[in-house]
Amino acid sequence: MTTRLCIVRHGETDWNVERRIQGHTDVPLNATGRAQALAMSFNAAHHRFDAIYSSDLTRAMETARYVAEREGEGVRALRDLRERHYGIFQGLTATEAAGRHPAAHAYYAARDLDYDFDNGESLRAFAARVLHGLDWLARHHVGQNILAVSHSGVLDVLYRQATGRPLEAARDFEIPNCALNWFGVDAHGLHLERWADRHHLAHVLVEAPE
């Protein structure tokens, strides 16, 4: 029996626009992000969800509530859906991080699996947390349709898991804000059904950097 998961990256924030690394920093949506979330909720309304989950960070919870209000459902927070903790890089742009912490930035750019930004989270540990959350959702909602709002890093891990791409490989796919990304989980594992459905965002600015 297949559990279907629609995983959505939160709407745009001011830090996305400024190219600042957010991680666990609790940044709210900006006006564009709220417009993206509203547009996404109309697209999501074509589907029936048995439960709605979100990362516990504000930008994700705000996004999820647009769908929840249309569905007449509540939003359940799941901490495993949080973005990666980027430690000393949080709040910095990539350029600032490279200038202040050049050695650390080299690990970051190389997607080193075990570097944890001094007080953050390694890519290996982060991926394990994300997949633990995925397993929890699949076990508790067998055969159901679930919507979850999360972050680009989480979607990066799930895309790689579903397509067999290694964590350390350079990213060669986009992760738009408020696009619908569909996965199936069955006895054979995680598989990708549809990626980056964003036709609902045609009249909303969607090209914000991470």
State the share of residues found in helices, binned by percent: 25-40%
Unreliable sequence segments: 206-210
Strands, total number: 6
Here the CATH topology equals Rossmann fold
Helix/strand-derived class? alpha/beta
Q: What is the rounded distance between the termini? A: 35 Å
Total domain modules: 1
Strand order of the largest sheet: 3-2-4-1-5-6
Class in CATH? Alpha Beta
Please tell me what the overall shape is: globular
Fourth CATH level, the homologous superfamily: Phosphoglycerate mutase-like
Largest sheet: 6 strands, mixed
Number of helices: 7
Mean pLDDT: 95
Question: At CATH's second level, what is the architecture?
Answer: 3-Layer(aba) Sandwich
- Rg of Cα set: 16 Å
Q: Strand share of the residues?
A: 15-25%
Order of helices and strands: EHHEHEHHHEHEE
Write a compact overview of the structure shown.
The chain is α/β, with parallel strands linked by helices.
What does this protein look like?
There is one protein chain. The protein is an alpha/beta fold and 210 residues long. The protein has one domain: Phosphoglycerate mutase-like (Rossmann fold, 3-Layer(aba) Sandwich), CATH 3.40.50.1240. The chain has a six-stranded mixed sheet. Strand 2, helix 3 and strand 3 form a beta-alpha-beta unit. Helix 2 runs parallel beside helix 3. The radius of gyration is 16 Å and the shape is globular. The C terminus is likely disordered.
